[in-house]
Amino acid sequence: MTSTTDIIQSIGKGSIRAIARALSKVENGSSDSTDILDKLFSRQQGFTIGITGPPGAGKSTLVNRMITRYRKTDNSVGVIAVDPSSPFTGGALLGDRIRMQSHASDPKVFIRSMGSRGHLGGLSGATRDASCVLSAAGYSPVIIETVGVGQAEVEVADLADITLLVLVPGLGDDVQSMKAGIMEIGDIIVLNKADRNGIEQLESYVKASLEYMPPGLKRPDVVRISAVNGDGLEDLWDAIDRLVAAQTVESRISHSAVTTLSEILKENGLLFFEKLLEIEYNGRKEAEELILAGQLSPYAIGKKLLERAERIFEHNGSK
Amino acid sequence: MTSTTDIIQSIGKGSIRAIARALSKVENGSSDSTDILDKLFSRQQGFTIGITGPPGAGKSTLVNRMITRYRKTDNSVGVIAVDPSSPFTGGALLGDRIRMQSHASDPKVFIRSMGSRGHLGGLSGATRDASCVLSAAGYSPVIIETVGVGQAEVEVADLADITLLVLVPGLGDDVQSMKAGIMEIGDIIVLNKADRNGIEQLESYVKASLEYMPPGLKRPDVVRISAVNGDGLEDLWDAIDRLVAAQTVESRISHSAVTTLSEILKENGLLFFEKLLEIEYNGRKEAEELILAGQLSPYAIGKKLLERAERIFEHNGSK
User: Fold this and answer.
1) Which pTM does this prediction carry?
2) What architecture is domain B45-247?
3) What is the CATH number of domain A4-247?
4) Which residue, among A185, A268, A270, A307, would best test binding to B if mutated, counting the most B CBs under 10 Å from its CB?
5) Tens digits of residue pLDDT in B49-70
6) Domains of chain B, residue spans
7) What distances in angstroms separate CA A239 from CA A161, A168, A189, A190, B74, one per listed residue?
């Protein structure tokens, strides 16, 4: 099973080994990963749920509940647990991962930890491509779990068809930094650990924050749950189902087409300009030395490479 | 004063009008902005201080104090107040801006609000280029103030030679989302409003968080201040001076060369691939329609454009 065609065919037959193989290729940015993704892109049929929030918010417990829920309706469920590089959360994630293993023996649950390693598009690029593989392999939903509301997490959350921001009491109404998350992420804001003190305060803070959203933007639903004892989960499933029902395979592919195309242009643009830099200036190191020597600015280098690249239009005409 | 040479010359003579003109060109991505930046890049002599933290942390009061401090030693001080697009903070920033106007009549203080408007590199690209203009015009320090610890802020903070993360009591030790900031931003962590309840708790939380930093990374200094009544400011100035003294003009230009070159490659790469997309597929809209019609995947489009671009190597040889 080495050729792209073999891998695609085996994925079509549900081979776990072929899926794992494709994921590794995609994650490491292998030379044939583009062909694999090309074949799989239009086969995506399912939907993706992104889940983010601070460490300790109970995201993995919620993911576990969600797996159980979708397994009841015989869906195959994919989980991409995005490993942030921060050592802070490494420990917590590892523990969470083990908890999720209650589904580990279920062949219809595929759990994958994700790093950015060799992927040109970084963590969000790697996650996007992994999600494409799992979705094309028939997993629906594909659940993407990330930690935090920083740069990487917002990007990853943008990939999903439906995004949940999970918060817990104790953050207080002065947690200004959460506002970014509330504004930028979240079709549904999940208030977890609803049995804890401070849940009222958290809910009124969240709702007050939402008041400031620009008109025209859709306000997220706010749902209280306790992932541990199960309270409120039916409300959450209803909220998710409503969002899923409002989308179609076409609307999801359309969203994915727009964002994926954008990112691929960026990734390939950088790849090509790195090559140009190699040819014109023997690569980054020598270019940097020219800058330090005061001979060229980064702006002049950029301009020269762009002009060089644009010569292609003269040589190749319009087709 | 329309030619690039005129603008550069006038900036050299300290013309405020020329500086403002250059900043506008840079911010809007005018066609001649690259030439202006090219000429100015190697003239940067000063250092930049990035200041970030949640709204209400007292950043602008601190910036005011900092301006006063550097004006005493007759430095010209530039301030770039980065306007996040979030409507949340718009109000607060506006107020802060007015407070900073105590220095507005001082011709050696240049304050500029910054949006991302037409800039290819977004907010951080626009800020990077504005900082280049001010630094080359003789302002030192150039203070870059941003709000929050989200994606844009981390990027902007990365630009500065020295970065301060400003926190205030009341965030509590469960503000997990601040950890990203503590880890990713901050040569100096400033604990402002040190006269408030909770300062002890905040300091021990911050210090405990720092324990988890990977070995080899430099731990930030932690300094308590009260920007309003001036307590602790001497300690903060000392901490900044130590960091400034540990750098040289060369080390700063070197850092700037590396990050600026990276970003310019990305920006120009995207620009070029957008043009290729225009030629091959009549632009984004039509490409997206092909994807939705199931005729092509974004991956296939990316691959085709990359192959097309690489034909330049065949036609042009190695020089």
Assistant:
1) 0.80
2) 3-Layer(aba) Sandwich (3.40)
3) 3.40.50.300
4) A268
5) 999 887 678 888 899 999 999 9
6) 45-247, 261-316
7) 14, 19, 10, 10, 60
